[in-house]
Amino acid sequence: MVNKVHTESVRRKYNRVALIYDLMETPMELHSFNKYRKMVWQHARGKTLEVGIGTGKNIPYYPVNATVTAIDFSERMLARAKKRKEKLNAKVDLRLMDVQQMEFADNTFDTVVSTCVFCTVPDPILGLREIARVCKPYGRVLMLEHVRSCRPLIGSLMDLLNPIVHGLIGTNINRDTVQNVRNAGLEIIKVTPLWSDILLFIEAKPRK
Ligand SMILES: C[S@@+](CC[C@H](N)C(=O)[O-])C[C@H]1O[C@@H](n2cnc3c(N)ncnc32)[C@H](O)[C@@H]1O
Question: Which domains does the chain carry?
Fold first, then answer.
């Protein structure tokens, strides 16, 4: 069941940072983060769902002729995505929706994509179970996510800093998203480390 209090608190934080989100992301872009976005989207096929679209930074990388539906639970982040959609004349169908409780029928999508979302979703297992539910049996789940480092010193530092980061922007920097994917009933196909053991490209599929 969705924890409404926690969910509302994270949603409010994203509404608050929506205006400056793209500015906050600039350092990542300077480090070629966009090449990873592009790489992830090259694997998307068929009817595709993007969860946690944020301000729409992935829109330029959507495959040509793709049918994309995208959701976010922050109306202000979604409003920014709408502006980007209009600017780029993109076809994406934007919906205000919580990934922990989606309105889509079972087995709706061929591909589900998340980029830097499961550090944030209040109950990641619930969100990932929902993804497993709406993804078709032979569909793919593509995730570009940052996770807790396995290296003892760095991992401990991430644990130490996490309450501060979470308090400010609602993001967790010490989640074990690969294990969360497994715990939610998805099967890992491949995990590709992109930046040390912190930024990962996770490919998974439903166990149906
Ligand atoms: C760190 S931002 C990443 C945005 C975008 N994916 C990107 O790569 O730039 C996380 C996004 O996930 C959204 N989000 C977090 N929890 C969510 C939930 N339960 N349902 C839908 N969206 C959620 C936030 O509102 C925010 O827009």
Answer: 4-206 (3.40.50.150)
